[in-house]
Specification:
The complex is a heterotrimer of chains A (about 290), B (about 325) and C (about 280).
Chain A: E1 4-13, E2 19-28, E3 33-37, H1 44-52, E4 59-68, E5 71-72, H2 78-88, E6 89-92, H3 106-117, H4 122-135, H5 141-146, H6 154-166, E7 172-176, H7 184-201, E8 204-208, H8 212-218, E9 221-226, E10 229-235, H9 236-241, H10 246-253, H11 270-289
Parallel strand pairs in A: 3-8, 3-9, 6-7, 7-8
Antiparallel strand pairs in A: 1-2, 1-4, 4-5, 9-10
Helix pairs in contact in A: 3-4, 3-6, 4-6, 6-7
Chain B: H1 2-30, H2 36-40, H3 47-56, H4 63-75, H5 89-124, H6 129-143, H7 146-160, H8 183-189, H9 193-230, H10 233-240, H11 245-282, H12 288-297, H13 301-329, H14 331-334
Helix pairs in contact in B: 1-13, 5-6, 5-9, 5-11, 5-13, 6-9, 7-9, 7-11, 8-9, 9-11, 10-11, 11-12, 11-13, 12-13
Chain C: H1 2-36, H2 74-110, H3 112-126, H4 130-141, H5 145-172, H6 175-182, H7 187-223, H8 235-244, H9 250-278
Helix pairs in contact in C: 1-2, 1-9, 2-3, 2-5, 2-7, 3-5, 4-5, 5-7, 6-7, 7-8, 7-9, 8-9
The structure holds adenosine-5'-triphosphate (ATP) and magnesium ion (MG).
Chain lengths: ~290, ~325, ~280
Amino acid sequence: MSFLRVNGLSARLKGAGHPILRGVSLSVAAGEVRGLVGESGAGKSMIGKAVLGILPKAVEVSGGEILLGGVDLLRLPPKERRARIGATCALIPQDPLTALNPSRRIAPQITDRLVDILGWDRGRALARAEELLAEVHIPDPARVLRAYPHELSGGMRQRILIASAFAAEPKLIVADEPTTALDVTVQKQVLKLIAEMQARHGTALLFVTHDLGVVSKVCDSLTVLYGGLVVEDTDVRSFFAGPAHAYSRALLAATPKYTDPQASLTPVPDAVIRDVQAEVAAADRRARHG
Amino acid sequence: MQLLRAVLLRLATTAVTLLGVAVIVFVVIRVVPGNPIAMMLPPGATEADVARLTAQYGLDKSLPEQFLIWAGGVLRGDFGLSITARQPVLDLVLGRLPATLELSVMALVIACLLGGFAALTGTRARGTGGEAAIDVANGMALSIPDFLWGLILVLLFGVLWPLFHISGRVTPSLELPFTTDFYLFESVLRLRFDLWANIVSHMFLPALALAIPLAAIIGQLLKQSLKETMHLDYVTLARTKGYGENHVILREALRNAILPTLTLVGVQFTFLIGGTVIIERLFSYEGLGNLAIDAVINRDLPLIQGIVILFAVIFTAVNLCVDLLYAVLNPRLRHG
Amino acid sequence: MADARGMVKRKAGLKLWLSGGWLALVVLAALLAPWIAPQDPLAQDLFLGRMPPAWVSGAEPGYWLGTDSLGRDVLSRILHGARIALTVALVAGGITCLIGAALGLLAGFLRGWVDLAISRLIDIWMAFPPVLFSILLIAVLGPGLSSIVIAIVVIDWTRFARVVRAEAMAQGAMDYVASAQVAGRGRLSTMVTEILPNVLPTIVVLLTLEMGIAVIVEAILSFVNLSISTDDPTWGGMIAEGRTSVHQAWWVLVFPLVTLFLTVLAFSQLGEGLKDRFDPVLR
Ligand SMILES: Nc1ncnc2c1ncn2[C@@H]1O[C@H](COP(=O)(O)OP(=O)(O)OP(=O)(O)O)[C@@H](O)[C@H]1O
Ligand SMILES: [Mg+2]
């Protein structure tokens, strides 16, 4: 039984009604890492945001369900939904420079959820925070806990955010391009760290990324998105053995190979784009009549 | 070291400013027509009497000489004698200063509460009719100066619904046990809540009149910067932790949104203090401003000088405090 | 966000129409006061003291908004008071604007010692309590229209100078100014042809706001009995009189107060509306 199961989730812009997600279904089980790929604007972040209840004000869910541990979040009253998400899920954000509150010290930013939402006492939460910082390989955790964000480097801040995400032993973590804002040299370490932490804690991880190379390293399963529509849902091994969908194949061909980064890239051919756009249009027609 | 240099530079410019103020007032009031000495003597006084008093107040010397004598006195804490009250200016001014300070601080507190409330509810209600209503109210409050608000409050709560006193600082028939002039503060210390209520009932309308425009500015600026802050990643991250809207606004957004508001509020607070002059007159409140207007009408030169200088000192002190507060609240400056 | 922009524009339009409409009424009242005022604004009649407005019982016909304690007609005095209010707004506002904007422009564009001197002067001015300073000036200059104008100019020029200086400084850093300089244009000519047009919208908005402030300052000075002469009908003087008898005759305070309120609000909303209009981001 998967911890997160999204069924036929649709979302659209408020007012104008332009669709953003078109009946997305996917699931992530405990210990599983699911990659979420697609071109920019495909709706990858929107799925993560819908699950965590932080959709932008201009976007509304128009159908489907988000089952978290078997309970449909969309049917819960807002307060309960927030509490449930807060107790079982966490986010590793994209940009560590803006994801820490500049006017608060590090310690309370890691422990606040433990204390406020889970009701731990402060001493225990603090000890846990220190332990976590050691776990993400931060030297001198006691000093870092007392520091303000601007006193730390970008890589350190991302480690802190990872530690903070794992602090409450969440069942599900959403990581939205967690390394794109970092220096290339730091990217690899952070990626390794996330994979290591995920494996140790057995968390379900929804991993949003552009990079199929990263997918091949960290993910177990994979969802390919185009225009808010799922075009392929498969496990990583069969995907790299040969994707079923033409768009996925084109996407794979458009990705630089680690073995030969200089090899000329094939952009996604127009014909493939036309076909997948026809699929999107067909999905809209079905939605309208169904 | 850099900090020390900044502080020294700041003190030096402050000194220049105060000196400038002193020179300007000094020169301006020396050209007042009408002889203040003649006004203070009873009819039938002789030429010799006038000459004697003129010499006593040093008004027979040249302007630069008078200024040097006066400035020398000021540095020793001697602001001269008031012509009408025949008391040291410093005593008179210090006797009235507490009333004005209490009024200004109460106004500031009201402004922060009202403005903060408007900003927080406006942020909660962003994008709805509630926010639009708050914007309109803010715009109105901002366009109308304290003087007019004072008159409107007199009409509404002094005449139409007489809920508050509209004249004086405290009911004159009351027995006052106070040893200082900080009535509001001391009434609390002495646990005399009957007097406290009477004093607050006198202060509330003038303080509110002073507070409304400042509240509007705080409301507008704070809401603006709160709304900007609400989009930032750390606020979103806090939402995923299970916190509700109120908590997110208060704990994650407010502290960072206050900083840009703070610097502007400092300048605006000096405007508020400047406004006490006319508001005290309007509500016959016995503070510095009321004293100042009387001094101008009576041509009491030493007293006017003393009051203007005191206002200038207060203004520069407020600005200094705001800068310090900014440094304390901003962790980036504190450790860096 | 085409919707939001449209809404701001519509709101700005509404502001402009309403405030412009009220100000047009005030201008008409000022121009036509001698012909449309039902009574002589100075005529006293102690038998007609404190007559209530027309719709209250006990009113005297012909005195629509009642009379003050000396039996002078409130409506006629308000209409005549518009003349002084508008004169002060236009003359004092205009001169303040010219002097303040010029100094601000010079400081912001020329920088160097000019800026240093003007900035220091602004600092000193900001340390004065403005109301007290204006009262002091009137005491020195003696009552009268020209004294009021001078007092307003002297206390308020910094309002323009501060804002215009900052704006001119920002504009001076732009590339088009540099290219004008490279093309060999003189400093002053660059200032007038390149900087001034860009700062002008700001100046116009400040000017409308300043006119409202001038009306208020005049009222404050009349209120402390230092404005024109005590007989001449000014809104502030009427308010001062009304304040003393507010418990016996509310109308003496209320009508001039409402007039002053709406006029000040109209000037400031006109400024706001113009600002929304001019704002290049919204345009
Ligand atoms: N705040 C917002 N308000 C309205 N629409 C939005 C907002 N943010 C994103 N969208 C729209 O939602 C759609 C999906 O955006 P999303 O951010 O999920 O893309 P993405 O797949 O994460 O892209 P990227 O790889 O660039 O992050 C896009 O069409 C975008 O225009
Ligand atoms: Mg994204």
